[in-house]
Amino acid sequence: MINLAVVDTLVLWVWVNQVAVPALCAVTGRCMHYELTKPFLLAYLWPVGSTVHMMATWSIVSITFTRFVSVCWSARATHLNSRRNVMIRLCSMHVFCLIFNVPRFFERYVFTDGNGRPRVARSTVASTLLFNYGYQVFLYYLVIYIIPLTLVIYFTVRLYSSLRQWNKKREDMTAKARDNHDLTFSLVIVVVVFVICQLANPIRRLLVAIYPNTEYICGSIYFYYKSWVSILVNFNSASNFFIFCLCGVGFRRRLVQMCFRRGSVEPSHFMSNATTSRGTMESTTKNKE
């Protein structure tokens, strides 16, 4: 959960600096220095945005997998969801995202024109067919969309199936089992929002690869489409926290405890590995019978 919160915050921070602030400057006309910083933002902040966006995508996969193990593979949860294994998965994921996005830091470069003003241009490497179609289309779609979306949808379908079984026996659940049920339900909603918000971005990536010199001028179709894609991606990152607050009773209770210091909160509660949701629910039902 902490990992997802940090990555979502980074996604929003990049968006504010790369989109929101420039938009305000363009509307107010009071940020003349923005024209000097724009080339640097495009050349160096854009790769950072791609990296944290990829981290956010795979963070959803990691959280969904962890929850899937706790619910559907309860016998393996103690091992697979141990603190050590979870940290290994997260660190490996972040390292992979960084390595995968290294070529993006060489996609553009900043130079000075005849008037001494900084300008940005695509590098020779970024103009090759291998980069545009091999890396930016094939590999990017495979790693950012096809594989993670397939995994997330599979895990979510299995979790939803378990939720339907739990709903039939909700009255027999303990308070902790209900909290785990609510957490799983919240995660399913997060994944649904994630899939919807991510569907428009692959089309934009394809347009950029096919038409790398597309003008982002106001009035063009691509200008508005690009803006809506940006809104959806950032809405996805901004909504996760509120979804957990609205749908998770246990999450809200522990959030209040953390904010007002009314008690200690175990970080492992949200991704419990020793006692799984299904195991708790089943044992409670058997005791009542």
TrEMBL record:
Cellular localization per UniProt: Membrane
Keywords: Membrane, Transmembrane, Transmembrane helix
Lineage: Eukaryota, Metazoa, Spiralia, Lophotrochozoa, Annelida
Residue ranges occupied by any G-protein coupled receptors family 1 profile domain in the UniProt entry: 1-244
Protein name: G-protein coupled receptors family 1 profile domain-containing protein
Domain of life assignment: Eukaryota
One GO MF term attached to the UniProt entry: G protein-coupled receptor activity
UniProt GO cellular component terms: membrane
Source organism of the structure: Paralvinella palmiformis
InterPro entries the UniProt entry points to: GPCR-Ligand_Int, GPCR_Rhodpsn, GPCR_Rhodpsn_7TM
Segments traversing the membrane: 41-65, 86-106, 138-161, 182-203, 223-251
